[in-house]
Amino acid sequence: MKKYLVILLLLLCSCGGTKFYFFGVDADLFKEAKGKDWAKAGVGIVASAGTHILGHYVAGEVFDINYDFESYYTKEEIDSDCWNGETCSNSDLRWFARGGFVLQHAIGTTLTSFEATRYSYFTKGFVAMNAAHTWTYMHGNRSEYHDFKMLDHANGDGDLEWGIYSVIGLHNMLRVPWTGGEHGNKESNEG
Fold first, then answer.
1. Is the pTM of this model over 0.70?
2. How far apart are CA 166 and CA 179, in angstroms?
3. What is the pLDDT of residues 139-162, one digit of tens each?
4. How far is the C-alpha of 38 from the C-alpha of 105, rounded, in Å?
């Protein structure tokens, strides 16, 4: 799996002439950004992380799975009766496991679907965090009970779903105009 992550990162990072691109983003964007723009992007990043937790919470409520949000990803934090298949089905546990990424990427896709939000620094921060969170999640999270391992435990395919969310994250990153500041190059996009 690590080789796929390296290949993905190499495809997204490129240098051309005197311009530098980081994950396909023109580095000049960062020169143009003002303090309030950084703040908006920061709020988007925090909102993305909060959305992931909210997705688990919503799925836990829908499928009646108890979850302790004080610390992350130990078997004891997830309702052990559910984990053992006594109080919920494998399908319920799979939906709980994928709840965070589903909500994150659904909101990211929505934000990049409308002209009014596609150009905002909030959206840039939100979708950048979604993509980075997804791409680094499997190798950065050493717990035996993280989302993708939970999918495997419940007869799902964590590797497949990681791939799907990675593609969605890349798709949303590519939909955001990364040049031209808050409003992008709307005029050139319209013409």
1. yes
2. 23
3. 655 666 788 888 998 999 999 999
4. 22
